[in-house]
Amino acid sequence: MKEKISVIVPVYGVEKVLGRCVDSILGQTCKDLEIILVDDGSPDGCPALCDAYAERYGNVKAVHKTNGGLTSAWKEGVRQSSGDLIGFVDSDDWIEPDMYERLSEELLRQQADIAMAGLVFDYEDPGYPPRRETNRMDMTVYDREELQGLFPVLLNDGSFIGRSLQPSRVTKLFRRKLVTDNLELWDDRVTVGEDLQMVFAAVLDADKICMIPDYYPYHYWYNLSSMTGGHDPGYLEKILLLRQRMEAISDAKGVYDFRPQIRNDFLSLAVMAVKNEIWRNRTDSFGQVLKNVRRICRDTSVQEALREHTMDRIGLSVRMYLFMMKHGWYLPCHVVTKVFFSWYYRRQE
User: Fold this and answer.
1) For 281-329, where are the alpha helices, taking DSSP H only?
2) b/e per residue, 99-112, with b = 16+ CB within 10 A?
3) Mean pLDDT computed over every residue of the chain
4) What is the DSSP string of 19-54?
5) What does the alpha-carbon distance between residue 113 and residue 178 come to, in Å, rounded to a whole number?
6) Cβ-Cβ contacts under 8 Å for 186 (sequence gap 6 or more)
7) Domain assignment of residue 21, given as a range
8) Is beta strand 60-65 parallel, antiparallel or unpaired with respect to 114-116?
């Protein structure tokens, strides 16, 4: 028996590409599907575009709210939806026509709670070839017992950012209960790792999950601003909040002690925080950048993670970087980061 699918699309500042996204969902081969466009207080023409789609198509609903961020937008979309199954598409991305038919059929065939696919990073710059990403799991179907066997490496397998679970909510189709039961656990303030907190909680509640191997129907649009990025002076505070929320979810579920893995994941992100400060901070002086790096490395949670992490599958270069962070070698961190990224981006030219 076919089940109704609700697709939630948070919308903000994407006037030029919103049509590509919505049209790809309207073109799905499965027809029992509703689209919830959540205008998160967008300052451009997106609110009018959402209304125009809702007026033209009976299965499109436009929701308008004050700006509250990505998590608040998709949570409101869930509340406004009516489907038995829930999917998510971000408004600057697009999907292949058979994505939800294939995911729903596999979910039904396996009697699973979550069905997963892979994604393709499509770059605006034609010099960057598309890149695929999927879960790092050995099997395509996990029942509850097998899923529990995956818990020891679910968030970190001992390597740098070693997540066995690919955290993107947009590559997955969820049974409604797994989403609605967890809405209160997903903190609107989280802006780094929004998907990770969402998918983590849902997977812990699942009795069975399944994956479609070698299938990459979701196109993640990497535009120039995504690629070059900007300096985020508050990145450390954001990953500290993510760690806090992930630990709170782990504690609330009480099915396994994920704290060591959460610590490892946090430390991986802390390394990225240092690199973000060194490579992307184009406004502060050299001396101030080193002071900012020192602030990150001397943070009590970062130092605790540097002492207590259990990543035993990291290479020599990462070990050296962690050693420099732990022992206050900020200038060598600066030199190594500058040299690496200069080499990396020259290689891409």
Assistant:
1) 286-298, 300-308, 316-326
2) bbbbbbebbeebeb
3) 94
4) HHHHHHHHT-S--SEEEEEEEES-SSSHHHHHHHHH
5) 8
6) 71, 75, 194, 197, 198, 201
7) 5-228
8) unpaired
Sheet containing 208-211: which strands, arranged edge to edge?
Answer: 60-65, 33-40, 5-11, 85-88, 172-175, 114-116, 208-211, 141-143
Give pTM, 2 decimals: 0.94
| Amino acid occupying residue 168 | S
Same domain, 135 and 218: yes
Alpha carbon distance 6, 75 (integer Å): 13
Two tokens at 5?
């699918």
For residue 85, what are its two tokens? 């199954």
Query: Are residue 200 and residue 117 in the same domain, yes or no?
Result: yes
In 3D, which of 91, 81, 68 has the Cα closest to residue 22? 91
- Let me know whether 280 and 213 are in one domain: no
- Whether residues 218 and 242 fall in one domain: no
Contact criterion met (CB below 8 Å) for 63 and 37: yes
Pinpoint the alpha helices (H) of the chain. 18-26, 46-56, 70-80, 99-110, 144-150, 176-180, 194-205, 224-228, 235-253, 259-280, 286-298, 300-308, 316-326, 330-348
Structure tokens of 207? 């009795």
How far is Cα of residue 313 from the mean position of the Cα atoms in its chain?
23
Q: Minimal CA–CA distance to 7: which of 65, 98, 57, 80?
A: 80
CB 198 within 8 A of CB 171: no
Six-digit token string for 168: 């993107």
Query: Are residue 13 and residue 94 in the same domain, yes or no?
Result: yes
Is the Cβ–Cβ distance between 238 and 192 less than 8 Å?
yes
Tell me the per-residue pLDDT of 128-143, one tens digit each, with 9 for 90 and over. Answer: 777 888 888 989 999 9
Short-list 292, 173, 293, 192, CA closest to 241: 192
Express each pLDDT in 258-284 by its tens digit.
999 999 999 999 999 999 999 999 999
Supply 188's token pair: 């609107």
